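Archive maintenance. Older records in this collection stored only the sequence; we are now back-filling the structure field for every entry so that each record is complete. The fields below show one back-filled record exactly as it appears after the update. Entries are processed alphabetically, and Calcineurin-like phosphoesterase superfamily domain-containing protein is next in the queue.

ARCHIVE ENTRY
Title: Calcineurin-like phosphoesterase superfamily domain-containing protein
Organism field: Sulfitobacter litoralis
Length field: 282
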Amino acid sequence: MCGFIQGMSRVNHQDLGQLNGPIVLFGGPYSNLQALEALFERARALGVGPERMICTGDVVAYCADAYAVSERMRSSGVPVVAGNCEKQLAAGAMDCGCGFEDGSACDLLSVGWYGYASARISDVQCRWMGQAPDIISFVHAGKRYAVIHGGHHDIARFIWPVSSEAVFDEEWQAVERSIGPIDKIIAGHCGVPFERQTPRGAWINAGVIGMPPNDGAPQTRFAVLDTGRVTFHTLDYDHVGAASAMEQAGLTQGYHSALLTGYWPSEDVLPPELRCAALASG
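Back-filled structure field:
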């Protein structure tokens, strides 16, 4: 158990200042080394270095390479917002704190991968996770952005493209109480990439690179912010190798199959209108 998280009475805020040129936004490496290396390769092809990449958290989760992915991210210098997984691992907690309902598929499946990851990351990595900011801000193309994980004060809050306008308004107010006025918010956690226009501004979820977005294909997602506009991109990577690594590690509770099929074993976490049957009929 690590137990290195810092006790903080105020929000840990990292201001990156002015960022120029394209910015690669991504979430959830999820211990998927093959996907992470593919993302760095895509970023290099776009002419984007680590100083213009931002991660929305959950570096470690379902897949097989918790240590290697943590070390790659830690040594890269890419700014990372603390996800619930970072918080829980740094604190030496017994579960991922993902916000799943008790008894749900996500809740039951998380037991296996969380224990595996917790046993493999180092004390140095735990310290690094414990120091990750709760919120990142930067200015790009004349607009001020905030980056969070799930919700601002509830790090594991699932915010979906179909969430009510009140949810987005509540979170926006919480962010602005912490760091002042902002024009756009970038978030993660839910695993589904989207951009939602709200009365206060755009809410952007960059998606995750470590797991497909439950759409029946193995490719994952990241986003690029350039001249104030966000575009979503698919990430091709060695998903067969990533799934094989999970099988060799004994991580066969279902997420290994998701890397191949593109379908989550835990669809019950999704709002009904985003589940496969609803999307197929729509």
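Update note: The radius of gyration is 17 Å. Residues 273 and 281 are 10 Å apart (CA to CA).
Entry marked complete.
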